[in-house]
Every structure is written in C-alpha cells, then in structure tokens.
Design goal:
By secondary structure, the protein is mostly helical. The chain contains 6 helices and 2 strands. It has 2 domains: 68 residues, no CATH class; 38 residues, no CATH class. Helices cover 65% and strands 3% of the residues.
C-alpha cells in the first residue's frame, strides 16, 4: 500500500492489494488505523469502509459480523483521529467568516471557534 495522499477513500481502497485468508484480520486492522489516523474515520464511518475493503479486497471476504470487532479495536486504539476533521472545521470557519464579511458582520477568528468548541465539549 502506498503512502501517498488520496483525493477520495475509493482511490485509497483501489491501491490496496488483494488480502488473502490468514491476513484478513491483521490487514483490515492496519487499514482501519490508517483510515482513522490519516482521514479521520471512526465509528460507523470506519466500519462502513472496512466492510467495503473486506468485500472488495479480501479473498475470501470475512463474514460481516467479524468486521465490526476489528473496527471497534481500531476505535479503542490510541491512534489520534486524523487531520481531515480539522480541515473540515477550518474550511467551515473560513466560509462562515467570508459570509459574515459579505454581510457586514464582525466575526471571531476561526481559531476562536476551535477554542469555544473545546470549552463547550461539542463534538468535532
């Protein structure tokens, strides 16, 4: 699997080699950690993409009920959630600031939105 950046998760999945029996659990776990760290997937989204990788790349695919525990293990790991979530937040903050300036409103800097979110414990 290449370490380059990808435009879509589908393009990332396309780079994964076929995963043979005996390697499926380990490889799905590693892929899940990479998706969590680099893309920010977790929870149901991570499970959905691991199911997709399982169907497309595992030979033979794991049974569906075997994929959920792998995604759960990735979610419980200490892998930090990736930069895509921060990128989305920064993009939205920039769009809100642009809209506010067009409307003639004063807006707090985007960094202030992150601090407010952390203080109020809102999910990212």
């Amino acid at each position: 699997m290449s370490e380059q950046k990808f435009n879509t998760l589908e393009s990332f999945i396309a780079t994964i080699d076929s995963i043979d029996e005996g390697e499926r659990n380990d490889q799905l776990y590693r892929i899940g950690r990479k998706l969590r760290r680099n893309v920010g997937l977790h929870g149901a989204d991570l499970l959905l993409y691991l199911h997709e990788v399982n169907s497309a790349k595992c030979s033979p695919p794991l049974e569906d009920d075997k994929v959920a525990p792998i995604a759960g293990s990735v979610d419980r790991s200490n892998v930090p959630i990736g930069s895509l979530r921060r990128s989305v937040d920064e993009y939205l903050a920039t769009e809100i600031s642009s809209f506010a300036s067009i409307a003639g409103m004063k807006m707090m800097p985007p960094s202030h939105l992150t601090i407010c979110r952390q203080k109020s414990r809102m999910p990212k």
